[in-house]
Write a structure and sequence with these properties.
Elements lengths: L9 H15 L3 H15 L24 E10 L2 E10 L3 H5 L14 E6 L3 E10 L2 E16 L3 E11 L4 E12 L7 E11 L2 H26 L18
Length: 241
Amino acid sequence: MLASGYIPDEHNHERFGRLARTVTSRPEEEALSALRERGSRDYPDPTFERVATLAPIPAPDAQPQVIAVPTVVMFRGDVFTVRKELVVPGDLAAVGDLVRPQNWKQLGPFWDDIQVTPDVIYEKFVINWNLLQLHAFEVHLRYDYRETADRVRTAYSLIHEENDELLVDEGYGEARREPGLDGWTRYIAEKTLKFSSNLQNLLSPGLLAMFLERHGDTLRDKFNHVDNRPNNHRPARRIRH
């Protein structure tokens, strides 16, 4: 944490400094400096390279079930990125609808409001815990929406947050036809966040993972046990005589 540039908030500084002194047996500022130096030496590049992962390919006669690749958390410098990938038994048109900014509210209870113009997405994004609203962000995003015969994709990045509580908010959602697997669609969502608050940055991996896991829950609720693939992509039924 120290090697990546973390500076304790004022209300955490005493506790963090006491921990540093205990670990190094040095005065506080010297202790923090020594730990930063050690972290830079032991972890010279705090970056996790993205590793390609593949979801299992379902059998032709398998029941339609969403197949999930494990959620990946990446740390680059001082920001976290989380990536979620699923293979969905649904047509590109049906899965791709969820990639459109106008339909993001279907992906989970994180939005109080979404307004989309040709150039900008305005969203009131809330962090909830059960019925308790913990925090709300009013975010303006630039975006690029593209749709082809094989892919639907929305990429976005932060213009500004109205209370200056977000420094980075970028990512994309994508649905694309799965090669060699007719009637199935691969859904990928990736999001990077950096808050102006150090405490919120410490919580961001969990928040991001919760956010994208909810995408997976939505896709399971919508597509599991219901064959949304075109008729010519469904396996033929065996007839017993």
